């Protein structure tokens, strides 16, 4: 059995060989660090990754570590790879957080939908007296006159079920402009 210094030297030699283009050493080097990869796989939950995906990400991190490793900096490759792998996993977690928030950014609450569409408001209110129905119908008729032509276009697409992104593509504008127009539509509706 190899002692710790022999293992370290062996690993360092494998890294040098891989840098020199001898890729046959890559899998044996990766296998040396498999317990570390397994530990991180158990330690961090990555929602969109299966175990095989995580192994592939660990290989990518190792390839990056081999490519950037400089033994003259005084750090052993094992420590360098551990840090590289850890930072790679943190990057994946950050990206997952961003992916997760996409749905939240495009979500519209039921209250907002009811406020922007009088017909939905009719469906969800408990008081449907003839007077309230007349008032709502009047408000619904006057509402479009409060909107600019651009806001009418955006509102029409939105009421047809288009997402903000789809509206932006349809009108060839930025998503931000669509969101701002919808917000103005909501504010104008509240004025009624």
TrEMBL record:
Family: Belongs to the sigma-70 factor family.
UniProt organism field: Jeotgalibaca dankookensis
Domain RNA polymerase sigma-70 region: 29-96
GO biological process, one term: DNA-templated transcription initiation
Ranges in coiled-coil conformation: none
Protein's name according to its UniProt entry: RNA polymerase sigma factor SigS
A molecular function (GO) term: sigma factor activity
Keyword vocabulary terms for this entry: DNA-binding, Sigma factor, Transcription, Transcription regulation
């Amino acid at each position: 059995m190899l002692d710790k210094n022999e293992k370290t030297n062996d690993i360092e030699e494998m890294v040098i060989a891989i840098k020199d283009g001898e890729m046959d050493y890559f899998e044996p080097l990766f296998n040396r660090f498999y317990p570390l990869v397994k530990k991180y796989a158990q330690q961090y939950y990555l929602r969109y990754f299966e175990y095989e995906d995580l192994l592939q990400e660990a290989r990518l991190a190792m390839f990056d570590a081999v490519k950037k490793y400089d033994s003259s900096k005084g750090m052993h490759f094992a420590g360098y790879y551990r840090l590289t792998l850890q930072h790679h996993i943190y990057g994946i977690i950050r990206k997952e957080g961003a992916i997760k928030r996409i749905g939240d950014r495009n979500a519209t609450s039921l209250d907002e939908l009811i406020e922007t569409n009088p017909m939905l408001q009719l469906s969800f209110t408990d008081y449907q007296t003839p007077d309230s129905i007349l008032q709502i119908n009047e408000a619904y008729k006057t509402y479009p006159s409060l909107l600019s032509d651009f806001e009418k276009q955006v509102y029409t697409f939105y009421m047809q079920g288009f997402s903000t992104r789809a509206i932006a593509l349809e009108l060839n504008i930025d998503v931000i402009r669509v969101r701002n127009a919808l917000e103005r539509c909501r504010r104008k509706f509240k004025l009624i």
